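Reminder to self: tokens first, then the designed residues, so the page reads top to bottom the way the pipeline ran.
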């Protein structure tokens, strides 16, 4: 093959077209698909990074092609499965290939990089690489490198004399430790010491040490620090002189692993039935999707672990996706304790370097079990035996930026390649998945009770229209506060949910009714008392809390709508002795913040955990016997056809946090809509009835899962431009649709202006539109990049959010 078709990273003019480059002869066996290259692009010939997509014998431009300037990888970073996955992803999500390819890789392999070499054994004096590598044992490889030297590097790497690492900064440097081994006999070291010059203090120290322990092997650095004079240079010198052998060993930066022992449980009959079905599919190599619908605490995770163990037992690998927020140390330790040494963990809390190291462990086959959040769907596992997605209804599985993929679709696609089952698990499956199970496309497996006769919590609804409130605290019913008090007295724990962060929702003038809004967005500012500021939750704008109304200068301004900060303060006033932890975006934004709060609560160092929906998942604490929902109506009032589904899911999940062990759990839901079906059915933990009822409403309204949806959104700095463009798109698209397709809009988005950009949108509802997807592909290629003229276009297939 002499021509490489390269997908190039050219931000200004996106296209999915590969560009042809000549492969220099010396690079022929290295320049293969999936390898990253640098190629000259544009008239200036600046080097750009790209991926070899295909190699071919001939190009229509043959003879006029520029050669590849550099090869960045000695082995492909993406194998053929991943390359075809990228191809599918680009089409399926209306994305650029380059963004798909980059999404699949850890960021350390995406951005600007440096190549660093580490020599495991010194080079021979006549080695051609001596001219290139200017240091004894490690250093940067220059950007410009002759192909013959590259081939030499590759030879040495294969012989394990040298290793190459890519880094974007110091942080992604491979972590290495030098191992030194004595290779001479004690007497020989003695003799060398005798010959050493008297002023060679360091050498003498080293030789003294070696004569005492000639077969020393290990990390000399601890020893070096005890003898400060002994420098790395002395050691290197000793290696050169043949007194010592040195060898670099890679140390992986591993996320902390803990000590939770999670013994394998004897499965209940229901669990066993689910397990049998799943391992049957693993064994038969069936590409079957299972929907494991199991009430909270019914032991779904136990089924996943056993099924993964089975896949491993067959010599295969296993992938388990969980929502970011459930990736708690508790959860990770549970997996690690079942598969010691085999687990790689991928989540956004890792540093760039940690993430890269985990990726490498998977890629090299050293980790055969992967647990991770959304992007772990692209983990470079091969020979996959099972793929699991826990809490499959979670919105965080959908990526909000290009490529706008849903991890569920990605693992189902990969499962086709590996002929393996996919298990989607939830106590509250998404309507889409549950409907597919209804149709028989997924196989439904049910866990209806908790093991060991542990009871589901009892749920009570508190009607806030009538309930007595704590005086001066309109958000807290006496009933809920009494329950909290009982828990405090019994030394049990309470979890309180309030789905609104900050201190107050908005600030309003009582004289003129003016609400203080963000200058950049069409949204009111939220009061944050801790930082004495009003904050915009959309663009991050902050301003001081005013003491008079900006419109009428009245001093009669007040805050409305309690957020987590205010409720925390109120509960503290009621129970001055209670230890309260608050968990929301503001208290968890620093690295590890979320985990710290959970661990603290888990050690029972607090009595009350108050937080936004992030408390609803993954927590499993035996001392929690009360769950209170301060305001169940927040999520109900969203103008979104999924508002009821989200409310039902949230209430069911948060209720599931109560009474996970022997002690009975109780739940109190405060609401102004006590008769709403989503709240009623969540209180009864009755998913099936909710599903039936909600499906009827979706059918009447023509919503998913009865229709597919696509959201087309345009934004621009000038409102009239955005409006014009979206009408133009509509006029162009309409003739390509069948009469059955429903086009909603153009309409302004609910929050029309964010960060001074105006958003207008179209929603297409359809069942079968053979021409639609190709038309949208054309649209995105046309409107993105160079010719975009300040417009941004977003095409979101099966969007989870319409705002
Ligand atoms: P889920 O994933 O459905 O929320 P888990 O797998 O976390 O449920 O199980 C909830 C609790 O029940 C855990 O503490 C787990 O150890 C325990 N458990 C699960 N299966 C069994 C079983 N078969 N026998 C005893 N305890 C079990
Ligand atoms: Zn006013
Ligand atoms: Zn704003």
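Designed residues (803 positions):
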């Amino acid at each position: 093959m002499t021509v490489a078709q390269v997908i190039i990273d050219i931000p200004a003019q996106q296209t999915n077209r590969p560009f042809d480059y000549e492969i220099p002869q010396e690079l022929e066996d290295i320049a293969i698909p999936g390898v990253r290259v640098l190629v000259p692009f544009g008239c200036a010939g600046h080097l750009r990074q790209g991926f070899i997509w295909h190699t071919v014998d001939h190009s229509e431009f043959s003879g006029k092609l520029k050669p590849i300037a550099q090869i960045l990888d000695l082995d492909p970073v993406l194998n053929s499965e991943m390359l075809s996955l990228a191809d599918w992803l680009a089409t399926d999500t209306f994305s650029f290939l380059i963004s798909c390819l980059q999404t699949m890789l850890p960021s350390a392999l995406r951005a600007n990089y440096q190549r660093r070499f580490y020599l495991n054994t010194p080079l021979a004096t006549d080695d051609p690489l001596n001219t290139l590598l200017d240091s004894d044992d490690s250093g940067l490889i220059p950007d410009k490198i002759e192909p013959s030297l590259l081939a030499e590097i590759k030879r040495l790497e294969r012989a394990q004399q040298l290793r190459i690492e890519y880094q974007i900064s110091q942080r992604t440097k491979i972590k290495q430790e030098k191992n030194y081994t004595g290779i001479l006999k004690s007497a020989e070291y003695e003799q060398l010491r005798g010959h050493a010059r008297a002023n060679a203090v360091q050498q003498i120290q080293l030789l003294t040490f070696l004569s005492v322990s000639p077969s020393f092997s290990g990390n000399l650095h601890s020893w070096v620090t005890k003898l400060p004079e002994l420098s790395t240079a002395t050691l290197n010198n000793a290696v050169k002189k043949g007194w010592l052998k040195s060898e670099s060993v890679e140390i992986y930066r591993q996320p902390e692993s803990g000590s939770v022992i999670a013994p394998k449980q004897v499965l209940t009959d229901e669990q066993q039935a689910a397990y049998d079905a799943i391992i049957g599919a693993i064994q038969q190599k069936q590409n079957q999707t299972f929907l494991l619908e199991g009430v909270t605490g019914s032991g779904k995770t136990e089924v996943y672990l056993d099924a993964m163990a089975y896949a491993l037992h067959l010599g295969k690998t296993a992938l388990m996706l969980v929502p970011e927020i459930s990736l708690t140390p508790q959860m990770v330790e549970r997996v690690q304790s079942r598969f010691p040494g085999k687990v790689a963990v991928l989540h956004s809390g890792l540093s760039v370097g940690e993430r890269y190291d985990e990726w490498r462990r998977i890629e090299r086959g050293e980790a055969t079990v992967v647990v991770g959040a959304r992007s772990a769907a692209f983990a470079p596992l091969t020979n996959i035996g099972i793929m699991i997605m826990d809490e499959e209804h979670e919105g965080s599985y959908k990526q909000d930026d290009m490529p706008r993929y849903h991890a569920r679709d990605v693992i189902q696609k990969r499962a086709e390649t590996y002929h393996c089952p996919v298990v989607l698990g939830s106590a509250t499956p998404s309507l889409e998945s549950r409907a597919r199970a209804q149709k028989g496309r997924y196989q439904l497996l049910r866990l209806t009770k908790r093991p060991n006769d542990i009871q589901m919590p009892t749920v009570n609804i508190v009607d806030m229209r009538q309930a007595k409130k704590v005086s001066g605290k309109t958000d807290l019913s006496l009933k809920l506060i009494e329950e909290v008090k009982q828990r405090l007295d019994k030394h049990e724990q309470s979890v309180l949910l309030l789905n609104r962060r900050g201190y107050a929702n908005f600030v309003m003038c009582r004289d003129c009714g003016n609400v203080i809004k963000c200058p950049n967005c069409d949204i009111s500012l939220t009061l944050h008392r801790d930082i004495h500021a009003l904050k915009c939750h959309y663009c991050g704008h902050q301003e001081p809390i005013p003491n008079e109304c900006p419109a009428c200068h009245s001093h009669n301004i007040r805050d409305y709508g309690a957020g987590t900060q205010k409720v925390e303060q109120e509960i503290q006033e009621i129970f001055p002795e209670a230890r309260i932890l608050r968990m929301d975006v503001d208290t968890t934004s620093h690295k590890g913040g979320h985990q710290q709060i959970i661990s603290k609560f888990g050690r029972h160092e607090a009595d009350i955990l108050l937080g936004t929906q992030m408390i609803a998942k993954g927590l499993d604490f035996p001392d929690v016997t009360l769950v209170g929902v301060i305001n169940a109506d927040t999520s109900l009032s969203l103008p979104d056809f999924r508002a009821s589904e989200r409310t039902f899911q949230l209430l069911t999940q948060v209720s599931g946090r109560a009474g996970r062990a022997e002690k009975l759990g109780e739940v109190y839901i405060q609401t102004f809509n006590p008769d709403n079906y989503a709240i009623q059915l969540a209180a009864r933990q009755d998913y099936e009835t909710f599903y039936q009822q909600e499906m009827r409403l979706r059918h009447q309204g023509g919503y998913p899962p009865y229709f597919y949806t696509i959201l087309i959104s345009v934004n621009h700095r000038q409102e009239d431009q955005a409006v014009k463009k979206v009408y133009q798109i509509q006029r162009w698209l309409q003739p390509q649709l069948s009469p059955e397709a429903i086009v909603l809009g153009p309409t302004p988005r609910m929050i029309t202006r964010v960060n001074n950009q105006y958003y207008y949108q179209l929603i297409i509802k359809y069942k079968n539109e053979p021409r639609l997807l190709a038309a949208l592909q054309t649209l995105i290629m046309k409107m993105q990049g160079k010719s975009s003229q300040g417009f941004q276009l977003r095409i979101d297939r099966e969007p989870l959010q319409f705002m």
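The two ends are 49 Å apart (CA to CA).
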